[in-house]
Amino acid sequence: MKRFLYALLLPILLVGCKKHDFETPPAIKELVGKWRLKAVEKTVNGQTVWEEVPAQDGDTFTIRFDGILLGSNGLPPCCGLDKYSIDGYPT
């Protein structure tokens, strides 16, 4: 009887464990990949200015297919962004 139950449950479990194909949102499709940080935008005295970032070994980041930012070690930054925008449009 146990063999019958196992034989019945095994195919059900295998069918339920299929790989999901996630689709990249069109708004970030061109941004997915590995990038090197060159400058950051900051607000100083009410004005936005670009500040260059010195070149270092850890100055790369990755944008994953689902829009998640990953640091050079492949993990999300500890003090990451709560939002970001592309050409003024939130993503």
Automatic annotation (TrEMBL):
Domain of life: Bacteria
PROSITE patterns reported in the protein's UniProt record: PROKAR_LIPOPROTEIN
Protein name in the entry: Lipocalin-like domain-containing protein
Provenance organism: Salmonirosea aquatica
Native organism taxonomy: Bacteria, Pseudomonadati, Bacteroidota, Cytophagia, Cytophagales
